[in-house]
Amino acid sequence: MAKVHNPRFVAFTQAARERIREMGLQDVKRQLENGNELVLVDVREDHEWANGFIPDAIHIGKGIIERDIETLVPNLDAPIVLYCGGGFRSAIAADALSQMGYTNVMSMSGGFTGWRAAGFEIMGFEE
């Protein structure tokens, strides 16, 4: 069952989505499979990361991404794809990174929930 978000949060996220680019699940998977340069960043909370993540992703929670991104990804032109649970928090984080000067940052639509529902590989998860 999809999480129901509060209306102001949805409006805030929609405004961010109008300023950023999004990449679909299939496109992210294809980029990774083709070995294309891509920094995949999981912006979920620590407990969410501990319950599974996309292979090759790095974890920088949304609460600290603005503080730590320059250390982990100093290249402002690096292709960065952010994901969260469903694509809301990652859109907000992508907007913030764009404002910080990152020129090639995107949010993965559908998030980890969509990735998992599609049956794509997940690391660190045990049923």
Q: Could you describe the 3D structure shown?
A:
The protein has about 130 residues and is of the alpha/beta class. The chain has one domain: Rhodanese-like domain (Oxidized Rhodanese, domain 1, 3-Layer(aba) Sandwich). The protein has helices spanning about 5-15, 25-35, 45-50, 65-70, 90-100, 110-115, and strands spanning about 20-25, 40, 60, 80-85, 105-110. It has a five-stranded parallel beta sheet with strand order 1-5-4-2-3. Helix 1 packs across helix 5 (about 90-100). The chain is globular, with a radius of gyration of 14 Å. The model has no long low-confidence stretch (mean pLDDT about 95).
Principal-axis shape equals: globular
**CATH first level: which class?**
Alpha Beta
Unreliable runs, pLDDT <50, ≥5 residues?
none
Category from helices, strands and their pairing:
alpha/beta
Q: Would you report the number of β strands?
A: 5
What is the H/E order?
Answer: HEHEHEHEHEH
Radius of gyration: 14 Å
Cα distance spanning the termini: 18 Å
Please indicate the percent range of residues in DSSP E strands (runs of 2 or more): 5-15%
Number of helices: 6
State the major sheet. 5 strands, parallel
